[in-house]
Amino acid sequence: MYELLMPSRVVYGRGTLGEVGQQAKAFGIKALIVSDPVMENIGVVARCAQYLQEAGLPFAKYTGVDSEPTDVHVKEALDVCRSERCDVVIAIGGGSSIDAAKAVAVMMTNEGEIGDYVGNQKRFAEKPLPLIAIPTTAGTGSEVTKVTVIINTKTDVKMMISQPALLPAVAIVDPLLTVSCPPSVTAATGVDALCHAIEAYISRRAHPVTDVLALSAIEAIVGYLRRAYENGQDIEAREKMAVAAMKAGMAFSNASVTLVHGMSRPIGALFHVPHGVSNAMLLPGVLEFTKDSAIERLAVIARIIKPSLKDVSDAEAADALVEEVKQLCRDLRIPNMKTWGIDKAAFDKAVDKMATDALASGSPSNNPKVPTHEEIVALYHYCYDYQYDTNPISHG
């Protein structure tokens, strides 16, 4: 049996931020805006607030979310939501703001703490507050997923929670909001979206509908990410990337991610590397590790992004895909963990915990080749100073 879950309404296109007031008014009488300091400083939060005012909807705001959402952010935002008696939540920002807002929306109506719901130890029993999710990056796809990832500040573990209650009621995808993204953020979030799409397609839980979404997203990302990176004012490229990231989000939310995300979360939790960057650091090396167990599917991807490969063998096409991904990372100046500045001694000390946490997340079990703890440790070391311009090293 297959299942496809997504928001009940998706509004997308240039200028659709202007719909937020009417959308929110349909759900409640007072809104909480959840965002981050960058969105507040560049005036995006103020624009959102203006549309709410024009619709006659009172609001409060919490703009304390960092690049990685934590249980502290969730608690602080919950305190505001409760004290201000808000009954609809609006997330505007990157995946971090949207993930934090998801946690607020469900915890306003459910008991305990957000960490109680990790790994389906506990199900959300009560319907959440309505959530309107508005992404300002073309990357996480969180606006259309049933997933939130929150850092537990006591254990330094990224808590991944996946339940239907986390789905936003409405997603508003306005590509004009992504124009302000600097090149480095455009690159990292774009490769994050590519990870979502590739992982959804090769996942053991993939199904025919997610395959269509994933392949369509991959084709668009490879075709337009470089353009968006090189010229942030390229509105066509921004639009194509915004829709592709949304499709990739729909795909992985229903088919699940695999080894890249499983390994990525501990890097973000322990070394505070933004999620898109840590995914990008791992993607080529993990594809090399996985390749022999997913040759046919990787060959399909390769031929979609490079039709000239139609007459080569599946093995050659899969090899070519890995090289294409490496070339993309080179063009986008994706750093490895060493050049990012992660201290080698601290990394070596943490790698065993990281491998344990990666496996515990459950995502690696969806990979075509399910790794052992030792193989994940070896992959972390391999990816630490990965060189995008060298030949791949065999992982046996």
Automatic annotation (TrEMBL):
It catalyses: a long-chain primary fatty alcohol + 2 NAD(+) + H2O = a long-chain fatty acid + 2 NADH + 3 H(+). Residues 7-175 form the Alcohol dehydrogenase iron-type/glycerol dehydrogenase GldA domain. PROSITE patterns: ADH_IRON_1. Its EC number is 1.1.1.192. Keywords: NAD, Oxidoreductase. InterPro entries: ADH_Fe/GldA (IPR001670), ADH_Fe_C (IPR056798), ADH_Fe_CS (IPR018211), Alcohol_dehydrogenase_Fe (IPR039697). Residues 186-382 form the Fe-containing alcohol dehydrogenase-like C-terminal domain. Coiled coil: none annotated. The keyword Secreted does not apply. GO terms for molecular function: alcohol dehydrogenase (NAD+) activity; long-chain-alcohol dehydrogenase activity; metal ion binding. It is an enzyme of class 1 (oxidoreductase). It comes from the Bacteria. Belongs to the iron-containing alcohol dehydrogenase family. This is long-chain-alcohol dehydrogenase. It comes from Geobacillus thermocatenulatus.
